[in-house]
């Protein structure tokens, strides 16, 4: 599956997982959106229904600081998708929901689209990739190959549980962050 990165050059180049994927030849730098575009502000959640588009046209990750980019600055076209709740395994945002690195977001997308081997290949390029997988394995397996409605039901159950038992959960929930 083709992976594309739109790089806004807002992150530390040494920590930027998008740049690393490009350097390793696992992603291509682009200025235009191609295929499925990962956008934390989208109203549509990535699901198996998106696999055909992703296989045909690829997945584009927007590598930017979501603290800087506003919701209104991104055009929301038909192929923009957000990820369901997942927890960051990266050292900067460890265990914070929705605060994934570009690489984590792409790996999660591949996993949800039932491209598990490709997802693991991406995660193996960073030393904390296994941490992301360990934190999210149950969630990723529950989302894998599911339609959007099913994923939204799973996500709602998880969010309801977190809100009922906030002291038992070490993760903070901050929706709208992918980098």
Automatic annotation (TrEMBL):
Domain 16S/18S rRNA aminocarboxypropyltransferase Tsr3 C-terminal span(s) in chain numbering: 36-158
GO molecular function: rRNA small subunit aminocarboxypropyltransferase activity; S-adenosyl-L-methionine binding
Cell compartments where the protein resides: Cytoplasm
Binding site for S-adenosyl-L-methionine: 17, 62, 83, 98, 102
GO CC terms, sorted: cytoplasm
Domain RNase L inhibitor RLI-like possible metal-binding: 1-34
Entry EC number(s): 2.5.1.157
Main location: cytoplasm
Pfam family, one: Ribo_biogen_C
Keywords: Cytoplasm, Ribosome biogenesis, rRNA processing, S-adenosyl-L-methionine, Transferase
Free-text function comment from the UniProt entry: Aminocarboxypropyltransferase that catalyzes the aminocarboxypropyl transfer on pseudouridine corresponding to position 914 in M.jannaschii 16S rRNA. It constitutes the last step in biosynthesis of the hypermodified N1-methyl-N3-(3-amino-3-carboxypropyl) pseudouridine (m1acp3-Psi).
Family: Belongs to the TDD superfamily. TSR3 family.
Protein name per the record: 16S rRNA aminocarboxypropyltransferase
Organism of origin: Stygiolobus caldivivus
